[in-house]
Write a structure and sequence with these properties.
The chain has three helices and ten strands. The N and C termini lie far apart (85 Å). 16% of the residues lie in helices and 36% in strands.
């Protein structure tokens, strides 16, 4: 009986460099970067059972001026930053108390950064103390923490570009129906 020769694994070449075009302030630049690795195979599921929220993109007039609000005042950790001609034009950040991320992205010249109807929500249990710390750093609140009719305590403020932000604590009312009776009961117990 003849022995079969086992095939040795094929040697792979290092990932090729890919050329990416980046457009900032109307100028196009070609940047070299490693080709992305293949994504893991998708898990077969029924419906949207594995749908996960990844991050929110927030457009800024000047990322370098917006970044300190999120990093230094709210305490977010910068995960990734992209610089173009020495200037930060993109930064992705992780909330210190969870897995939620947001990304600041440089808006194009003359583009509006107004986000009517969109508000970013950050939850923190020690809401009142945190808001006082933020206020001491010179941030103006349009509403200091107070119990809302739906049973969550909210404070409202804006970032450097005017994006609305809510700092809040839902507590035990998180998964209850959002009805005024829940809020009224929570207000009586506060």
């Amino acid at each position: 009986m003849a022995k079969k020769k086992s095939k040795s694994p094929k040697k792979t070449k290092p990932a090729a460099k890919a050329k990416a075009k980046v457009v900032v302030k109307g100028k196009t630049k070609t940047a070299s970067k490693s080709a992305p690795k293949a994504a893991p195979p998708a898990r077969k599921t029924s419906g949207s059972a594995n749908l996960a929220f990844n991050h929110a993109m927030v457009y800024a007039r000047d990322v370098e001026k917006s970044l300190p609000f999120y990093r230094d005042i709210l305490g977010m950790k910068v995960l990734d930053e992209f610089r173009y001609e020495g200037k930060c034009v993109y930064a992705r950040m992780l909330a210190p108390g969870g897995q939620g991320t947001i990304a600041l992205h440089q808006a194009g010249p003359g583009a509006s950064v107004v986000a009517d109807g969109v508000r970013l929500y950050f939850e923190i249990e020690d809401l009142d103390n945190f808001c006082q710390q933020v206020k001491r750093k010179g941030v103006y609140f349009s509403q200091l923490p107070q119990m809302m009719p739906w049973g969550w305590r909210h404070a409202y403020l804006n970032d450097y570009d005017g994006h609305e932000i809510s700092l809040y604590w839902a507590g035990p009312n998180r998964m209850k129906k959002t009805v005024m009776s829940v809020g009224n009961k929570a207000k009586r117990n506060a």
